[in-house]
Structure formats: C-alpha cells, structure tokens
DNA sequence: AACGCGAGCAACCGCTCCTCC
DNA sequence: GGGAGGAGCGGTTGCTCGCGT
C-alpha cells in the first residue's frame, strides 16, 4: 500500500510567494522544524505544493542565508569547487553554507560562466577549457585539440588536472573556515559573511526586508503612520518584531524595520502559545518555560536541518545525503592526509594554482 | 515617453535516489 | 522484495527591472 500523494495538483498556487505565505511557512517550521514537507500545505493552509514549500524554505527563508553580491573569496571557491565537483550545486553549496545551491547555480550561469568564457577567448583557457567541456557534456568540442595529444600526454594532463583539482579543494578548504581547518585565513576573507555560526536573525532580516519592500509597494502601506513600524494583518495569530508589539491574539504582525527587527525576532503561535525570541547573538528564549540557549547553525560541510520541540529547543539534524556527504568527507581526508605528505611540493604548486586563479580575474 | 533588449533571479519541472509500506 | 511516494537535485523557464536607443 502506497502513501497518499504529496499534494493535490489542483488548487495549488504557483508563482512568487507573498510575505504572508512566507511568515506562515516560517512560523510553522519554527514550531515543527523542517521536514515532513508533505504535511506542510495541509497543516498551514498554504495553497502550495510541498515541493514549493521546501524550495522556498531552503532557498530563501532558512536561517543563515546570505543574499547579495558574492565576494571574490566566494567566487574563487565556487570556481574551484565547480572544477572539482562539476555542476553538483548542492555539494558546492555545502561548502558555502550561507549560499543556496540555487543561488550558486544562478551565479555560475549568469556571472562566472561569462567570466570564464571571456578569459577563454583571451587565451587563458587551458584548464578552464576542459572543465567547461566536461561540465557542458561537450565531448566533441575539444576533439581537435585532443586528437593532437598522445595517450601519454593525455594521461599526464589528466594527472595534472587531478592534482590541480586537489589543490583547488585544498585551497577551498583552507580559505573557508571549516571546522577541521587549522589554517589562518586572511582577515579580509574572514568577513562577517562567513562566520562559524549563524543566527536566526538573518532569516528575520530576510523577512523584514521582504515585508519592507512589500509594504513599500503595497497601496495599503498608508496605514502605517511610522516609517519604522509596519503592520501586516494575518490570518493566523503570529507576531514578529519588537517586544512592544501589539497583542498576538489580534492576528497582527508587527515588523520593526531596521535595528529593531535586526535585533529581535519573535513569533507567537496560536497553537501552543509558545513564544521564542531570538536576539542578535543567536540567543533564544521562551518566556513560558525559561528555556534559553544558543541557536546556532554549524557551518560545514553539510547543511544542518533543524527541529524545534515544543519547548523551543532547536535540534540539529544532519542531512542524510550519502551522495554528497560521504564522498566529500573522504575527499577531505584524502586531501588532508596527502597534504601532509606533500607539503613542500604543494607549497610550490599552490602558488601556481593561485596565480592561475588570479589570472581569471 | 515608449519600446526593445539583456541580465538577474525566483520558481517550476522533471528526473533520480531513498525510504516506507 | 517490490512498488509507490517523498525528498533532493540540476536544468530550465519566465518574470521583473534596468539600461540603451
């Protein structure tokens, strides 16, 4: 006997998500944790497919997501990891936990591909050329040049490619603040954008910005008499924003734009009346039971999922993606072991790899 | 001011793999 | 063990916005 279908095909809403939908989804996940996506639409009343809910959460609402411009450091990591892993965006994203696979994929397709192509045109195409042929499944485009390469040359080249890929991952791992990384990243690249832990505030910030934009564009925004306070009426009893927000039982969402919202995010669910406040430092507390703690997202290498119990305790759940987790872990071990044995050689080669990378920009 | 075009991005689609019954 | 459904992933689409003509 099979399971019921994840969602009805009829009556499913498509297209962009509204702030109301976002908040409903966030409040539900705060309460029940991510997962069980099949039940999300029915339990929340959202007219969305479970897939759509999951996507919205993972790509936009999930804690710790950084949006906006990619740093040069991130660009380099993406290029390196793409060369190493191919178009396995989820695997690449696991090394950039603040970026979603969708974001990285979009960035690659819109920015980096062009960058690399332009470099290729300029004649810096040795390694990149092959990478692109590989990633685009274009086995014939390099045939003319490959035909000139003898088997021995091809093998040497393959070895070089493998070594370069290893260098790339080594560098990527060392540049990044992975837990097992003991190298010292440059202060410039230790930007706050890549902390070892993140807080829910960033997610609240996402929603705050969203609501700000929405209210800015909404003709009803005239109801707000303060530039700093925005009120949105919702169907479910949900409050978000400053501690002085209006009664949650009135089904009102208060969003204090700017500092207020950045520093505090709380919600109040009608179901269990448990309020969770998350401050800037990732501390959360529930006034009801005085449960308090640090809400952290471990950054590497696999994205954690969270579950919240009724007491407001968030528990981390590892994704069980064997495909991404195991091979990368083995790769890391392999690289780290190998790195010790070849430390001197790698210093030299790392210089080459880095200078090649620098050429890309 | 109107139109066309391209870039960027959010979301959808379809496939594969895994889990559950 | 097999089938059905769930979850996740990568590719693609289509909408929006900015810029140039």
From TrEMBL:
PROSITE patterns: HTH_MYB, MYB_LIKE. SMART domains: SANT (SM00717). Residues 119-134 have a biased composition (Basic and acidic residues). Residues 177-201 have a biased composition (Polar residues). Residues 9-61, 62-112 form the Myb-like domain. Residues 139-150 have a biased composition (Low complexity). This is Transcription factor. Residues 9-65, 66-116 form the HTH myb-type domain. Residues 118-155, 176-201, 272-291 are annotated as: Disordered. It is found in: Nucleus. Keywords: DNA-binding, Nucleus. It holds the Pfam family Myb_DNA-binding. Transmembrane segments: none annotated.
């Amino acid at each position: 006997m099979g399971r019921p279908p994840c969602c009805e095909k009829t009556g499913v809403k498509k297209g962009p998500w509204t702030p109301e939908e976002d908040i409903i989804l966030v409040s539900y996940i705060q309460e029940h944790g991510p997962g069980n996506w099949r039940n999300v639409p029915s339990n929340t009343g959202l007219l969305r497919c479970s897939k759509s809910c999951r996507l919205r959460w993972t790509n936009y609402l999930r804690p710790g997501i950084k949006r906006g411009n990619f740093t040069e450091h991130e660009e380099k990591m993406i290029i390196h990891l793409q060369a190493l892993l191919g178009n396995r965006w989820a695997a690449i994203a696991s090394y950039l936990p603040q970026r979603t696979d969708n974001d990285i994929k979009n960035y690659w397709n819109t920015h980096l591909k062009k960058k690399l192509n332009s470099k290729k045109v300029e004649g810096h195409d040795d390694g990149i050329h092959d990478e692109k042929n590989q990633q685009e499944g274009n086995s014939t485009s390099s045939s003319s040049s490959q035909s000139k390469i003898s088997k021995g040359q091809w093998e040497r080249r393959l070895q070089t490619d493998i070594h370069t890929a290893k260098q790339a991952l080594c560098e990527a791992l060392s540049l990044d603040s992975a837990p097992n990384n003991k190298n010292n990243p440059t202060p410039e690249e230790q930007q706050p954008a890549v902390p070892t832990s993140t807080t829910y505030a960033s997610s609240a910030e996402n929603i705050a910005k969203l609501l700000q934009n929405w209210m800015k564009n909404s003709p009803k925004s005239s109801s707000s008499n303060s530039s700093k306070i925005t009120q949105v009426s919702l169907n479910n009893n949900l409050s978000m924003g400053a501690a002085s927000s209006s009664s949650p039982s009135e089904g009102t969402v208060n969003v204090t734009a700017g500092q207020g919202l950045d520093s505090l995010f709380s919600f109040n669910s009608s179901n269990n009346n448990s309020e969770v406040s998350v401050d800037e430092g990732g501390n959360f507390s529930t006034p009801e039971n005085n449960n308090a703690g640090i809400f952290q997202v471990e950054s590497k290498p696999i994205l954690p999922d969270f579950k919240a119990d009724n007491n407001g305790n968030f528990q981390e759940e590892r994704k069980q993606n064997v495909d991404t987790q195991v091979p990368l872990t083995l790769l890391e071990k392999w690289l780290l072991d190998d790195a010790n044995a070849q430390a001197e050689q790698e210093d030299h080669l790392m210089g080459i790899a880095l200078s090649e990378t620098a050429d890309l920009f």
